[in-house]
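for the record, two folds in this file. i put them one after another cuz i was lazy. first one right below, seq on top, structure tokens after. the second one comes after a little note so u can tell where it starts
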Amino acid sequence: MGQSQLQFDRRIRRLEKTAGRQRNGVRYVVGPDGLVVAKARRRTPSFPLRGLMILAGAAMLFKAFLYVNLGGITYSERVAELQQGSILEQAGAWIMQADPATLWMAEQIKSFL
């Protein structure tokens, strides 16, 4: 194999490596010399934190609506019934217990109704 063939193979491998990095997309950056260069976007693992926060807020709002609709005593009785059940029901009772945030939201909902 000649020297030119080795240089060609190295160049091909480098181009394939660059193209592989650019599969996630590119961003264009102007270098200090004024040349526009395509840089590969880094793929970062994303965790749906925003969706999780929306889900937690909706659950809190649901608890507050239940508390307002059923009343404090009935709500507490139903949570106590859940605490007597299976492990899954006990976990649900722990989640559904009336915490200060739920009570505050319930008061805010009562003021609108």
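(here's the note) second protein begins now
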Amino acid sequence: MAEDCLFCKIIAGEIPSNKVYSDDQVYAFRDINPAAPTHILIIPRKHLTDVSAASGEDQALLGHLLLKANEVARAEGLADAGYRYVINTGKDGGQTVFHLHLHILGGRHLDWPPG
């Protein structure tokens, strides 16, 4: 856990969140500033600054993150109409919390390009 990391504090229960899913490797919760009707963040319990900080030892964790995101999207009723995953990396990539997180966005038509 990184002491000054917002998401590490959420995982530790120091900051409240609206939990959607949790297991020993990942934690998913509703975004407090949603960009779509359904906007969930799924984060690894292991602190990784961003996806580029992952190494070979994180391969199973990254796979688990994606598979659990699939389960969450299905549970939220997004599978039939579709949804989008977003992983922002670095300041220019739009990352504002420097703990790897995957956005699950859905519940409306999502335009392309995104921004």
